[in-house]
Design a protein that fits this description.
This protein is of the alpha/beta class. The protein contains 13 helices and eight strands. The chain has two domains: 117 residues; 110 residues, Rossmann fold (3-Layer(aba) Sandwich).
Length: 254
């Protein structure tokens, strides 16, 4: 794919509600590469929580409201691998071939890119690290890893940062226990899984944790905070923006 002049950003409901800085950082990093970003104001949720909880009709009602927001033939960049996977792989199944929006959904699906994948494999971004040396551990959500290969593109970005040493965690491929509504419906299991993940992250010796998924970050950060650990996770877009001295919308250097 040639470098596009314009892209959409689908910000996701979790970023909108819990980590808007991640969304702003992602947009600024795209704009720095000379790409115009369009952010449809009416966007909300991809429908994944209802879909993975066994409520396809509710998921469809939510997703139907999103499809028409991306009518131009521009790439759709999603700073969350699980949401990107929902839109790319599960929307066509959810809508089916007979739905009036089936053609539009197919178009959207074909244009969806996970944020780190887009930076690495479409824009070919080259990062200049301006941060202090540090050890970083990477977490990628289950669906982001298996559907979008976000662990590969995230690691490729981190490897460009000369002052960053990426350390391994023993449970890298395991779920953190978030799983959308799984963490709400099965809190005991979720807490145990998050505890195992936190233990592995601490044992890695990392000073910082980064991930491309805010759902995982909220679950892991909550577990680490409850344990009194100093380690806290950060969305990879914000981490890269800070390391490369990008500026926020407010003009503050981060």
């Amino acid at each position: 794919m040639t470098k596009p002049k314009t892209v959409y950003v689908f910000g996701t409901c979790l970023i909108d509600l819990f980590d808007p800085q991640a969304g702003m950082s992602a947009i600024k990093l795209l704009e720095r590469e000379g790409v115009r970003v369009v952010f449809p104001d009416a966007q909300s949720c991809c429908g994944q929580p209802a879909y993975t909880s066994g409520f396809p009709a509710d998921a469809l009602a939510v997703a139907e409201r999103q499809v028409g927001l991306f009518s131009e033939d521009w790439p759709i960049v999603v700073p969350s691998g699980s949401c990107a996977g929902m839109m790319k792989y599960h929307w066509p199944r959810l809508f089916g071939n007979d739905h009036p929006l089936a053609q539009a959904v197919a178009s959207v699906s074909n244009r969806v890119y996970e944020f780190t994948d887009f930076l690495v494999n479409v824009l070919g971004v080259k990062l200049e690290d301006q941060g202090q040396p540090c050890k970083v551990v990477l977490h990628t959500s289950c669906s982001a890893r298996r559907e979008m290969n976000a662990h590969l593109s995230s690691r490729a970005l981190l490897d460009q940062l000369s002052g960053v040493e990426v350390v391994q965690q023993a449970r890298e491929a395991e779920c953190c226990g978030f799983g959308g509504t799984f963490s709400v419906r099965q809190p005991g299991l979720s807490a145990a899984m998050a505890g195992d993940k936190a233990e592995a992250l601490i044992a890695s010796g990392a000073e910082k944790l980064v991930s491309a998924d805010c759902g995982c970050l909220s679950n892991i950060n909550g577990t680490l905070a409850k344990q009194g650990q100093a380690l806290q996770g950060q969305h990879i877009a914000t981490f890269i923006a800070e390391r490369t001295k990008e500026r926020t919308q407010l003009g503050e250097e981060i």
